[in-house]
Amino acid sequence: MIVVGLTGLARAGKDTIANYLVSEFGFQMLVFSRDAIDPELIKRNLAITKENEVIMGDELRRDFGYNILARKLLEQMQKIKSEKFVLSGCRSPEEAIFMKENYPNFKLVRVMAERERRFDRRVIL
Predict the structure, then answer these.
(1) What are the residue ranges of helices labelled H in the chain?
(2) Is 52 exposed, middle or buried (0-12, 13-18, 19+ CB in 10 A)?
(3) Which one, of 74, 66, 69, lies nearest residue 34 by Cα?
(4) What is the mean pLDDT of residues 43-70?
């Protein structure tokens, strides 16, 4: 099994790379915020916003450990019939360590972009 984790600052291009792996190489994509945090927000009838995702992520990590989001993604991965996963938005060393413990071939890739480019990618409403 191939599992690639993507980490990097906001708007560095993590999801762009993940989408490329999906479209060109048949990876299954899971996103730490969307697939591990948003279901908890929905369960609690809270709006899915960046602010709520940050608050909920911090709360989950505080209450259940710094690898809780990786544990939630692992549960989902085990239900999906695929040999290739890309996980976008890895935030803590504990998440990467957890994945490496469960998938020895796990690779963590840091995605970087120049500050000006990242800020140019902001969507201002």
Answers:
(1) 14-25, 38-43, 50-64, 68-79, 93-102, 115-120
(2) middle
(3) 69
(4) 96
Structure tokens at 70: 């990786």
Task: Check residue 122 and give its pLDDT.
Answer: 66
Residue 99 has phi, psi (to 5 degrees) of: -65, -40
**Residue 15 tokens, joined:** 């999801």
- Taking the model in full, what pTM does it have? 0.87
Q: Which residues pair with 109 in a beta bridge?
A: 6
Strand pairing of 2-7 and 107-110? parallel
List, in order, residues 6 or more apart from 98 with CB less than 8 Å away: 67, 70, 71, 74
Mean pLDDT of 95-123: 84
- Residues facing 2 on adjacent strands: 84
Q: How confident is the model at residue 116 (pLDDT cuts 50, 70, 90)?
A: confident
